[in-house]
Amino acid sequence: MTAPVEHGSWWWQHSPMPEAGVREPLPERADVVVVGGGITGLTTALQLAKTGADVVLLEARRIGGGTTGRSTAKVSLLQGTRYSEIARWQSAERLQQYAEANREGQAWLRRFCLDHGVPWDDRDGISYANGRSGVRRLEQELEACTTAGLDVAWTDQTELPYDVAGAIRMPGQGQVDPVPLVTALVEQARAHGARVVEGARVRSVGHRRPFAVRTEVGEIRADTVVLATAMPILDRSAAFARMKVERSYTVALKVPDLAVHGQYLSVDQPSRSLRSTVGAEGTPVLLVGGNGHPTGRSTPTSRRVEELLDWAGEHFPGGAPVTAWSAQDQVPTRGLPHVGPAVPGGSGILVAGGFAKWGFTNGVAAALALTARISGGYVAWADAFDPWRPADVRTTPRALQHNAEVGIAMGRGVAHVVRHRATGAICTHLGGALTWNDAERSWDCPLHGSRFGADGEVLDAPATCGLRKPPPPPTDDREGAIR
After folding, report:
1. Is the sign of the CA dihedral 195, 196, 199, 202 positive or negative?
2. Are residues 16 and 47 in the same domain?
3. Which ranges in 116-260 belong to alpha helices (H)?
4. Which residue, 357, 374, 394, sits at the end of a domain?
């Protein structure tokens, strides 16, 4: 077993965010309230403020402290097998719109970084196969990328220190450090008049205009509310029934030299994501990610980290582990992100999420689409993101399968609680039996991905209320497992 390493996002350790300072008081009124201080919420707030709207952004904890600050921060149009997965359920037109949305998101972010002194690295994106089944998936992805209009080509050559069965490459992709990025986004949003309030968890949103947004620190009313929380916090959006929630892991290692120059992602097992960056005094750092699983349905999670460290040590000898962490992502059953009205026909409460691990392009595209919708504009590719399109009825079997899996997890959780007479480890969202995540030191819900710290604080939506009396962590971490 690998010796334990420090826990926490390398980005935050390498370039910590400025201190939050004194929380701004909530105003009574705003044109738009944006909920969520990740890349999607910040870009939305900035773009709306540029139009002259009175915007207030509310973040439950710290800006960039969620998935944005835990990402590998690849800004890529080549996205593993995303295009072929979308092509299974969507038309060629929707596939092309998805590609155009991501192209627009990537272009906006590149311009923003170059204009505001945020470091940006151009890198080739490479998806590769470990074996024969992966080669078939690559062939399907290449075909889908071609249909989508992307410049992707087959290659048998990579710089990786191990054999691969094949790869596809797309030149000219990007990567960033998310902390300087969100710092610049906050600065620009405030410079254009938006108010950014940290430590203001939203508990509920009213049903009629002006919408009453109730937080832990007060109430504010707005004509429009944008829920940029990845998984919407309002059950009436039904998003939790149409998204799978997954956790994946990343380890950072100091390496003797730049281990990889491109961005790599395997399309079969073992799942591996690779990119390099530079630490203090120019020290090369390799980020190795993978080993994902449905949230709350794999214990002990520390094994996932140990496997990554062992694999990295085997293939990149000489690397010194620095830290390890994980992130949460939402994968929509329809393949495409959910960006638009929270309920069919609605216009005042909007959602943005379901980016399937590619939020640095999709999240920015979502912000551009929402800004156009709110300000009376229109972008054609945003039709693909509409969460209530009638054509999506063909993806109903996937949603039903997902919810059947949730039902099985709920049944197992109830059986576990009864068997072990556990009390208190119950999700405040819809009553799921929580499992102990020993890698993150958190209580995770296997139903819809809500997570709580050991102190009971909400870490991830859709839950909005913490645990009143969080149980003590199990003395044997496996005690928290649903078997």
Report:
1. positive
2. yes
3. 132-148, 178-191
4. 394
CATH, residue 399: 2.102.10
Express each pLDDT in 391-442 by its tens digit.
Answer: 665 555 554 454 444 444 545 554 454 444 344 589 999 999 999 999 999 9
3-state secondary structure at position 216: coil
E-state strands within 279-335: 284-294, 320-332
* Token output for 356: 């399937």
Closest CA to 86 of 294, 356, 349: 356
Residues near 314 by Cβ (< 8 Å), separated by ≥ 6?
none
Number of domains in the chain: 2
pTM of the model as a whole: 0.92
Distances (CA, A) of 389 to 93, 317, 343, 372, 428: 14, 50, 11, 18, 31
Q: Could you list the residue range(s) of the whole structural domain that residue 35 is in?
A: 7-70+179-240+335-394
Residue that the structure tokens 């979308």 belong to: 86
Structure tokens at 327: 């992130």
Helix H or strand E segment including 88: none
pLDDT single digits (tens) 83-119: 999 999 999 999 999 999 999 999 999 999 999 999 9
